[in-house]
């Protein structure tokens, strides 16, 4: 229940101008909810699998990810 | 948390290389300040020179970008003049342990209420990958193509020996732990040092077949263990993480303030 309401409230927002495509968020996402697109930028491709843990935001060296 | 509140967005994207760990430490630091509820006006971030020392430029606090190795000297002046402010000093391993080694040990000895954050990538990043005092023996760098002969410093033991009253260690893989340790270090009354193992894929990683940033962070996970854990006890070769020294003792500004009150003959 808790996670459902969180899911409704929070999105993983990625600033593609700041993302340098290091792949850290993709490699360490516990739910494989992120991937790199054809331009080498991170995308939130699995919102339905994402548990809004915030690990991607904490580990992004470019401060390009925000859960909001 | 709204990270952007604490940064100077006009300087982003920042200048650090793709995958450089320094941005993860900066993010953790912002999280620590936020968790303590400090206002931006009460925080001063002072650095020397190096890739890590670029941090104050990106942060929207009071900031100073000073001389290589000398940030703690500037920070001492700020703290003595304004003991009410929270002073944080991000440093590189070269900055902290080579050219700035003397400032480090004496700041620790005095127990002035500063928080030193050493972003230890085990190399001189900014100047092209020369060895630092924390490059592990045998590892390669621009100045040691056949491997470093010098034994390396353990920054935690160095700070402990010099008298630091709070010492902790983490890595960029353990970003949440880093944030919590930084918050504890800032809250600590006295000199605190937090060493964060940070990846430099551009030089240290490339020179030592460390792989990319992801591989280097996986290595941080493998070669470290929480202090006091079963894993740490079973394998003494692992690097311990967590709070490793926490021994409150008289803080320097407090002692100085007391002396001034005593000599001026009145109590407040
Ligand atoms: C007095 C002085 N000596 C040398 C330098 C050249 N220099 C700039 S940064 C640096 C070392 C950087 O390494 P480190 O402190 O480990 O930080 P990193 O770049 O790896 O984050 C050196 C030697 C300088 N700027 N000033
Ligand atoms: S961690 Fe940040 S910079 Fe790296 S790929 Fe993900 S969003 Fe981009
Ligand atoms: S919040 Fe957690 S689960 Fe969702 S994308 Fe980020 S790391 Fe993956
Ligand atoms: S040279 Fe190394 S320390 Fe400097 S920004 Fe690049 S990865 Fe980071």
Task: Write a compact overview of the structure shown.
Chain A is of the alpha+beta class.
Note the main attributes of this structure.
heterodimer, A: 68 residues, alpha+beta, Alpha-Beta Plaits, two-stranded antiparallel ribbon, two-stranded antiparallel sheet, 3 helices, 4 strands, 26% helix, B: 268 residues, alpha/beta, Rossmann fold, eight-stranded mixed sheet, globular, binds thiamine diphosphate, binds iron/sulfur cluster
Commentary on this structure:
The complex is a heterodimer of chains A (68) and B (268). The longest helix of chain A is centred in the first third of the chain and has 8 residues, at 2-9. With 68 residues, chain A is an alpha+beta fold. The relative contact order of chain A is 0.32. Chain A has 3 helices and 4 strands; from the N terminus they run H-E-H-E-E-H-E. Chain A has a single domain (6-67), classed as Alpha-Beta Plaits (2-Layer Sandwich), CATH 3.30.70.20. In chain A, the strands form 2 sheets. In chain A, strands 1-4 form a two-stranded antiparallel ribbon. A two-stranded antiparallel ribbon of chain A has the order 2-3. Chain A is globular. Chain B is α/β, with parallel strands linked by helices. Chain B has one domain (17-267): 3-Layer(aba) Sandwich (Rossmann fold), CATH 3.40.50.970. In chain B, 38% of the residues lie in helices and 17% in strands. Chain B has 11 helices and 8 strands. Chain B has helices at 22-36, 55-58, 71-81, 93-99, 101-110, 155-162, 175-187, 201-207, 213-223, 230-234, 252-263, and strands at residues 43-47, 62-65, 86-92, 114-120, 166-171, 192-197, 224-226, 239-246. In chain B, strands 2-1-3-4-6-5-8-7 form an 8-stranded mixed β-sheet, sandwiched between helices. In chain B, helix 1 crosses helix 7, helix 4 packs across helix 5 and helix 5 packs across helix 6. Chain B is globular and about 65 Å long. Classes of the chains: A alpha+beta (68), B alpha/beta (268). At the A-B interface, helix 2 and helix 3 of A face helix 1, helix 7 and helix 9 of B. The complex binds thiamine diphosphate and iron/sulfur cluster (3 copies). One iron/sulfur cluster (SF4) is lined by residues 14, 19-25, 42, 60, 62, 64-65 of chain A.
């Amino acid at each position: 229940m808790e996670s459902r309401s969180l899911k409704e409230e929070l999105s993983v927002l990625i600033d593609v101008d700041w993302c340098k495509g290091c792949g850290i968020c993709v490699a360490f996402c516990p739910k494989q909810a992120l991937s790199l697109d054809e331009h080498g930028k991170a995308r939130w491709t699995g919102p339905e699998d994402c548990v809004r843990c915030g690990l991607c935001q904490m580990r992004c060296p470019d401060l390009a990810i925000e859960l909001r | 948390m709204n990270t952007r509140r604490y940064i100077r967005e006009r300087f982003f994207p920042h200048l650090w290389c793709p995958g450089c760990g320094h941005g993860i430490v900066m993010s953790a630091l912002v999280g620590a300040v936020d968790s303590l509820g400090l206002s931006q006006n009460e925080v001063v971030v002072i650095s020397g020179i190096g890739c890590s020392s670029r941090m104050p430029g990106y942060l929207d606090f009071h900031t100073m970008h000073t001389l290589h190795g000398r940030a703690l000297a500037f920070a001492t002046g700020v703290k003595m003049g304004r003991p009410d402010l929270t002073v944080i000093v991000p440093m590189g391993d070269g900055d902290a342990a080579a050219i700035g080694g003397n400032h480090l040990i004496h700041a620790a000895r005095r127990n002035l209420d500063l928080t030193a954050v050493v972003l230890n990538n085990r190399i001189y990043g900014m100047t092209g990958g020369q060895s630092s005092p924390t490059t592990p023996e045998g590892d390669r760098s621009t100045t040691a193509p056949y491997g470093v002969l010098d034994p390396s410093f353990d920054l935690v033991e160095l700070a402990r020996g010099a008298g630091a009253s709070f010492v902790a260690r983490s890595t960029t893989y353990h970003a949440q732990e880093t944030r919590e340790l930084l918050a504890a270090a800032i809250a600590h009354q006295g000199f605190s040092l937090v060493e964060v193992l940070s990846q430099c894929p551009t030089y240290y990683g490339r020179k030592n077949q460390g792989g990319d940033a992801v591989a280097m962070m996986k290595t941080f996970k493998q070669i470290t263990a929480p202090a006091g854990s079963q894993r740490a006890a079973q394998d003494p070769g692992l690097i311990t993480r967590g709070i490793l020294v926490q021994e409150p003792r008289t803080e320097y500004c407090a002692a100085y303030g007391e002396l001034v009150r005593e000599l001026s003959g009145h109590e407040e």
